[in-house]
Fold this sequence. Notes:
alpha/beta, 18 helices, 32% helix
Amino acid sequence: MFDSETLFNMGKYRVRFSGRHEAIYDYDTGKHYTYAKMDERSDKLAGFLVQRLGLKKGDRIGFCATNSVAFFDAYYAGFKTGIIITTYNCLLREKELFALIENESPRVIFYSEEFAFTMLSLREKGFTQEFICLDDPGPEDRYCYCDIMNAADYAPPEDPGLDYEDIQMLIHTGGTTGTPKAAMMSFRSLFYNALADQQGFQLTENDTAILTLPLFHTAGWNVLTLPLLMIGGRLIIMRGFNPAKVLSAIREERPTIGISVETMYKALAMHPDFDQTDFSCYRTLVTGAAPTGRELLELYWAKGVKMVNAYGMTEVGPNNMCHPISLIEIEDVRAKWNSCGIPAPYNEVRFLDDEGNSVPVGERGEMVFGGKLLFSGYWNNPEATAAIMSDGWIHTGDMGYLDKDGFCYISGRKKNMFISGGENIFPQEIEDVIMLVPGVLEACVIGVPDPKWGEVGRVLIVTSPGAAVCREDVVEAVRNELSSIKVPKYVTFVESVPKNAVGKRDLNDIRKLYANPEE
């Protein structure tokens, strides 16, 4: 019973200490929300969902929206109702999006005006959810979100009787291939994930972060955002990513910590305001979803920012690896630029060979995770759950190794490894070497068919603006560092490497476009 009481009052515990402290600043509207105000707003939403619409513990509500304070109203309301939050990427193909919604059956869908047409399509397909616009209501909507927040006659919610293993969120995976799956994240998982981040990044109530990532992805929710709110910090939100706006917010609000993805960091660095923006406020910047090349990292290191690569997986937190930022200098970061850090607190990690045996330090193996951060399986998909989870361990499918200092290096996806002349080739190892070539902004290696060797490497190269990089530069760099079998046979210069909505490489598209070496 104590667990239920603790979870029910989770938001109010923070109000005791930080009630008057600003929790969220909506940069687009100019509105400021204290922790006390967020508690009041979530009470209103909880009352509306339970008393007006009749939702109960275990029911789902969905968001098809750009980032807004309403997401956090729902997050805090979840502690008070046991209602599960699920958030959708409305940029998915309509067929994929509708399949996710049909599978998860949210009773209510909150949407922003940008996706009004998508809501109309859902209605035309026979979906009968309660649709509530976070902006101006549509002609068929029964309720307006502003009316919920303006209500004065709501009753305080009653304790729904929660357990730490109850599901708090459904978060869709953002993998490189396949249809997203809904990972069930329990109160336990998200709680320990927050603790891991707070301790790993040494978060305090004095920290501020700008939310640049979308809240349909785990990195938007669970890397900095919820850990920061749990510790009493300050979050700046925007409807969407805009480089000029983010740089302006950095100058005005002086954030202390942040996470984004390579494409966003690249957009900031290429913006004309980048050189005039002082980044000394940042203790660290973290880059996720896919490795960021040294050429881009150097632009931020030059500003005195300890920007580091990280590793995370929806099903395991996602705070799995982090750098001990307070204990290292930029020169240490530079020396281990392609490492994703050391295992974060509360993570148990092993590196296994094909027979399931742990490999020695320095040898590659598949990373498997155990511990308190693990998810509870995929929603309505026991087959996929069984395929990834075994004996309390989650098999990531990612290959990596630890160096003598305990830092982790990712070699790439196990299934993306290719075999050339009987030798296993891991693309990440080759990419790391190529990204040290001056002028190379991104390198992506895939295996392509070859009549003699079975498969050989093909590398896609994105160069910095104005850089003069040729095939010989790439080939020579690899030949000097790695065995000859790892030298890519084909070097292709491209304007960009296909990526999905969360910044990860879209391997399906990449293979469709570049698997034939003659094209």
